[in-house]
């Protein structure tokens, strides 16, 4: 079982990196990607927790915005964690999250919703990268909504009146940095229409020109028709086809390993990094 897209409490998941690794081992997984949002801060604990036959594919899910304002998430895997340009990009993206959160809270307060920045900080684990899921948790804690999933289907959806875009690299810029850091770039859930505005098929040609390696096809937020279309695009453009859980612990319904990547596609993807950076005992 190969799951290349998961999150820990170093961003918006609920499991520590150690807990995530232990769950992956208990499920008999062969490869797991640790891809917290805009950070590599969970890598060290994940490596320390490694045992058994599990292989780590370390990375990060990078928050991007197209020139048309469409939110895109780019998975960078197997890059050099010490690469200066990569770490600068991740830091700058993280820094843009606080003013964005303040603007979203301000919009909600103007609409009469009883929520504050303090509420969000109370829902934020120590050392975690601030994000909309923590606002969702704060709204749940105050009884305003029932779950994160309800939040992202409504109040926190990209098309919501409360949504605020964030300072972020374009997908093409992110791909360039990932490649210069020696890694591989896979676009995450590009047709997840329930989240708001999405890419269109013609957008992938520009991403391929920038150096895209793969498409996350099998993901619970993409329906069968969307997956079929993405699979066809990947075949036409000779891109790696991946599947993943996008696991967040108890924060979302996604189950670890519910979707996976075939060994053949994983081997094709790993071979395109500039060095063998998988971590195993």
Give a brief rundown of this model:
Helix content is 37%, strand content 15%. With 281 residues, the protein is of the alpha/beta class. GO terms for molecular function: 5'-3' DNA exonuclease activity; 5'-3' RNA exonuclease activity.
How would you characterize this protein structure?
With 281 residues, this protein is an alpha/beta fold. The chain folds into 2 domains: 2-95 and 166-270, Metal-dependent hydrolases (TIM Barrel); 97-153, DNA polymerase, domain 1. It is built from 11 helices and 7 strands. It has helices spanning 17-26, 43-48, 84-95, 97-110, 117-122, 132-141, 148-153, 171-180, 203-210, 224-237, 263-270, and strands spanning 2-6, 31-34, 55-65, 71-77, 184-188, 214-218, 240-243. It has a 7-stranded mixed beta sheet. The mean pLDDT is 94.
Produce the secondary structure layout.
Blueprint (H helix, E strand, L loop, with lengths): L1 E5 L10 H10 L4 E4 L8 H6 L6 E11 L5 E7 L6 H12 L1 H14 L6 H6 L9 H10 L6 H6 L17 H10 L3 E5 L14 H8 L3 E5 L5 H14 L2 E4 L19 H8 L11
Parallel strand pairs: 1-2, 2-3, 5-6, 6-7
Antiparallel strand pairs: 3-4, 4-5
What is the end-to-end distance? 18 Å
Determine the fraction of residues in helical runs and give it as a percent range: 25-40%
What oligomeric state do the depicted chains represent? Answer: single chain
Q: Report the β-strand fraction as a percent range.
A: 5-15%
Write down the Rg. 18 Å
């Amino acid at each position: 079982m190969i799951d290349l897209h998961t999150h820990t409490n170093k961003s918006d998941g609920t499991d520590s990196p150690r807990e995530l690794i232990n769950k992956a081992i208990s499920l008999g997984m062969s490869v797991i990607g640790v891809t917290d949002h805009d950070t590599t801060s969970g890598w060290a604990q994940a490596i320390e927790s490694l045992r058994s036959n599990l292989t780590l594919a370390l990375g990060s899910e990078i928050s991007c915005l197209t020139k048309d304002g469409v939110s895109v998430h780019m998975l960078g895997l197997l890059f050099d964690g010490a690469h200066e340009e990569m770490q600068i990009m991740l830091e700058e993206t993280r820094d843009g999250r606080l003013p964005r959160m303040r603007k979203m809270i301000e919009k909600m307060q103007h609409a009469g919703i009883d929520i504050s920045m303090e509420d969000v900080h109370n829902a934020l684990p120590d050392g975690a990268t601030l994000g909309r899921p923590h606002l969702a948790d704060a709204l749940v804690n105050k009884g305003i909504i029932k779950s994160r999933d309800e939040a992202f289907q409504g109040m926190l959806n990209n098309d919501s009146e409360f949504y605020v875009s964030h300072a972020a690299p374009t997908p093409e810029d992110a791909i360039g940095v990932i490649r210069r850091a020696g890694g591989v770039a896979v676009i995450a859930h590009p047709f997840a229409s329930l989240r708001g505005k999405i890419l269109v098929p013609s957008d992938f040609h520009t991403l391929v020109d920038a150096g895209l390696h793969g498409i996350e096809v099998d993901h619970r937020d993409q329906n069968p028709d969307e997956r079929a279309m993405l699979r066809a695009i990947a075949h036409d453009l000779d891109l790696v086809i991946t599947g993943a859980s996008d696991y967040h612990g108890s924060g979302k319904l996604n189950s670890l390993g519910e979707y996976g990547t075939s060994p053949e596609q994983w081997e094709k993807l790993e071979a395109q990094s500039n060095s063998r950076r998988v971590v195993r005992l």
